[in-house]
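User: Structure please.
Assistant: Input sequence and predicted structure:
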Amino acid sequence: MTKSVLVGAVAYTTNVVPIWEGIRDYFADSPVETDFVLFSNYGRQVDALLDGTIDIAWNTNLAWVRTVLQTDGRCQALAMRDVDLDFRTVFATRAGAGLNDLADLRGRRVALGSRDSAQAAILPVQYLRDAGLGSDDVELIRLDSDLGKHGDTGRSELDAIRALLDEEADAVALGINTWEAIGQDELMPDALAELWRSPEYCHCNFTALDTLPDEVREPWVSHLLAMSWDDPRHRTIMELEGLRREWVLPNLEGYTSLFRAVEEQRIPARW
């Protein structure tokens, strides 16, 4: 008998529906049929995974950390995009500002994205702390746009860039995807300069509880990993989801820095 799973995803952009309709269709002829349900925020999605409403959640790194903490580790990361393996945070400033390192931000204003964004708020605060800059040393300007979506919309990072360009901030913290898409391209020639780039860390993953049976998990993951960039039908879905070329198995060590940041900053289970 064909097995089936229900996957949860957060509706942070209009692209989400065609992405998940494409993934649903891709799994239609697999050993594990797949359907999806959309949530307005990651807090509700994590709740739905914990109470068994969904079988798998397409989670941000913060949603993964919260799932691990709320289940005492009784969960598993199944797979992730290739771009999720080497995510980074970039601190940028206005070109010619004369700032060359995090230490130069002492006494300055730093614009951050939404407080639930790992890449644009939580990890940047940790990087500043690790550089010896606490709350008395740096003025943090928080742009809490779209709380609940963990920075997925990118809106708060764009708001932070605007604050920088309007000289309301001296530096800004951005996810590498925003920096590469906005901060360096022809839209803002010579306007911004990279100040500091973080070590690599991991971003999204498919998360399941450890009660998901092996006979469901293994064929589901295998079929997902078999999606081919060279197949035009698959490639359309993969490009919409932001992959470079392939789905990959997770690297759990890539979440170590976020676990530490969540603990030290006492990030709540949900906002």
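Residues 196 and 220 are 39 Å apart (CA to CA).
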